[in-house]
Amino acid sequence: MKAAVLYGKEELNIVPDFEDPIIKESEVLIRSKYTGLCSTDRTLYRGFVPFKPPLIIGHEIAGVVEEVGKSAKTLEVGDHVIIPPVYPGCGDENCPACKEGLTNRCKNSIFIGHGVNGGDAEFIAVPSRYTFKIKESVPLDEACIIPDAVSTPFHGLKSRSVPPHIIQNSSNPSKLFDQSTHWLKGKNVVVFGVGGVGGPTVNLAARYFQAKNVLAVDIFDNKLEFAKKLGATHVVNSKTYFEENNISINEISGKDRAKTISGLARYITSNFAEDKFQVDCVLDCSGVSDTFPIAVETVSKNRTIIQVGWPPKPVREFLNQKIMDKYITINGTWACPMNEMKEIVKAVENNTVDLDLLVTNKDYKLDSLENAIHDLEAGKILGRATINIV
Ligand SMILES: [Zn+2]
Ligand SMILES: [Zn+2]
Q1: Which ligand is in closest contact with the Cα of 93?
Q2: Of the bound ligands, which one is closest to the alpha carbon of residue 85?
Q3: Residues measured by CB to lie within 5 Å of ligand 1, the ion
Q4: Contacts of residue 145, Cβ cutoff 8 Å, sequence gap at least 6
């Protein structure tokens, strides 16, 4: 089969005759149609994280079932499907994380396109129980972004946003997590970073979880315009704030820096003056460590910060006192548990996620994958790019 194979750092070759995968009884063979381009692909390509070559990259996959294993009863040849990038590898679901329902944190998690071969190839073999059918009305060149770009913020918003004391003191905690009665409904949400993951975060918070206000923060005006299209009610360009106040944030430290950070936070929260400056949930999708102290200043007391983007460096500020004093819950999030995937598929099928807006680049083919990675790196891709495999 044709495949995009990484043989080492920056050695990405399009191989015409890579060995076809052979399915086990419990697996299905998927003809990969489209993949979403993720910054993880770039991270692997640049060799920033270790991997075992040769590796077929691509972990946001939509395709069609080509062959069904003997015991794989849930799917049929021809079904349109999406595949989550991280699924449990423990088999019997007998590991501590899976037992607690955290199938996204399985001790033997399988990472498609990183730990095992991915979807930037004609075929991929996957367990049928972790392959999710999707209606043919959802175009596959948009469906491919569901498994990661949409599902990761979905899990963050759905399951990581509610402060513990609200759960503890609720007479019916499960209602806090159901869409129609979700805790975020009518709340004020701030999203830092409107990229491939921040975009879906804005869209889901506004449309699916029905937050009252969604404020997006970025340093690029075109991204903020994009956020407005996706449902942001307010936008703030943090770079403009620094420019207007003649501040070079990277050149100041100590008290000056702390003052600037809280100044920016006040500037952000002033948009919610009518709501007593209330910020109920902050999602950091920026992938920049320096955003975190701003998030801590921005979020209201007794509320939650969710770390969605991967920050490459540690945070330089000492924030323990602030976190304690504000009684903040800081939640990490990681991929998406298998039991939430069906809800996401339904949300997409019911048109409560604007996939057509989130996918902004559809012109890349497998042969131009390397160009796509370069364009992503150069900031030329506004939302998500998808790769046409065939
Ligand atoms: Zn990804
Ligand atoms: Zn497990």
Answers
A1: 2
A2: 1
A3: 38, 40, 148
A4: 36, 60, 200, 355, 358, 359, 384, 386
**Claim to verify: residue 318 and residue 173 sit in the same structural domain:** yes
How far is it, in rounded angstroms, from Cα 39 to Cα 60?
11
Percent of the chain with pLDDT over 70: 99
Shortest-distance ligand to the CA of residue 100 = 2
Asked whether residue 156 is assigned to any structural domain, the reply reads no
Could you report the per-residue pLDDT of 271-282, keeping only the tens digit for each? Answer: 999 999 999 999
Residue given tokens 């939640």 in the structure block: 331
Taking each helix axis as running N to C, give the angle between helix 338-349 and helix 151-159, from 0 to 180 degrees, rounded to the nearest 10: 110
Q: Pairing mode, if any, of strands 3-8 and 11-15?
A: antiparallel
pTM of the model: 0.95
Neighbours of ion ligand 2 (CB under 5 A): 88, 90, 95, 98, 106
Domain CATH for 258:
3.40.50.720
Rounded Cα gap, residues 121 and 124, in angstroms = 7
Is 174 contained in some domain? yes
> Which of 308, 332, 356 delimits the end of a domain?
332
Range of the domain at 308: 161-332
